[in-house]
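User: New here, please read:
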Amino acid sequence: MNLKGLLNQGRLRQHETSKKEIENLLALVRRDIMDAKVEGLSSDRRFACAYNAVLQLATILLYCEAVQAERRNFTLIF
């Protein structure tokens, strides 16, 4: 499924981003990557930090395409 199809299904919506919004998301990515490297954390917690970084990167990609995931009832079907 492509972005246009997801928009038509209501799984995505139009979103106008800003440079500041992207910078803030990148700051979260950097923070989560640093947290994922903390050796004193459990491996589960480190994975959760890394996973969140990837989610933020995916959000940035969507924002660059001027779309945003529709948060309610969002399920990807491949």
The helical segments are 3-9, 19-36, 43-64. Residues 3-69 form one domain. Residues 22 and 31 are 14 Å apart (CA to CA). DSSP finds three helices and two strands in the chain.
